[in-house]
């Protein structure tokens, strides 16, 4: 996994967000076993206690399921994964929309910008896959 830890927020919170992203994007598949806490911490270059805290929070949300002696597994609950995915998208869109409104853009202008960016990104993605 590729980790991107910055100094702007608590590390455990960044780990939670990144693991959620790995799950909802399909990089971590439902039912798959996670590496050990120690291995994940080493991979992310963080303290194992910090990784443990992040995984415990994901346990509480039900995205990660601890199984006593077998380790941790990604939930198989596809509805939960989709709800988390939708929540992430909604939160990010709301933040973007609020920012653009504060810059003086109208709702129609925001839609136009979004449509232009979608077209641009889609075209670039199609070109790179050729």
Taken as a percent bin, the fraction of beta residues is 5-15%
Q: Helix content range of the residues, please?
A: 55-70%
Provide the spatial order of strands within the biggest beta sheet: 1-2
Rg, alpha carbons: 18 Å
Q: For the residues shown, what is the average pLDDT?
A: 95
Q: Output the CATH homologous superfamily of the largest domain.
A: Winged helix-like DNA-binding domain superfamily/Winged helix DNA-binding domain
Low-confidence stretches are none
The SS-based structural class is: mainly alpha
**Major sheet: size, sense and barrel closure?**
2 strands, antiparallel
Q: How many helices does DSSP assign?
A: 5
Strand tally is 2
> What is the 3D form?
elongated
* Secondary-structure element series: HHHEEHH
What is the CATH topology of the largest domain? Arc Repressor Mutant, subunit A
